[in-house]
Specification:
By secondary structure, the protein is an alpha+beta fold. It has two helices and two strands.
Length: 61
């Protein structure tokens, strides 16, 4: 995935990175859902509400 300049996830408490979870990809905290997932789903026509329904552990917050 191409990194977007200025996009740094470290200070965001809603995400985490662990080398033992999904090969160290950024995920929503407490889940195995990669943060790239909502962007891919939106690109494919899903709504945010649908995404939250499809991925337990991910909330609108």
């Amino acid at each position: 995935m191409k990194q977007v300049p200025g996009m740094f996830w470290n200070p965001c408490p809603a995400v985490e990175r662990n080398p033992e979870v999904l090969s160290g990809a950024w995920v929503f905290a407490g889940t195995r859902v990669p943060i790239r997932a909502p962007f891919e789903n939106l690109r494919n026509g899903a709504s945010i509400e649908q995404f939250v329904d499809w991925f337990p552990g991910v909330s609108m917050e």
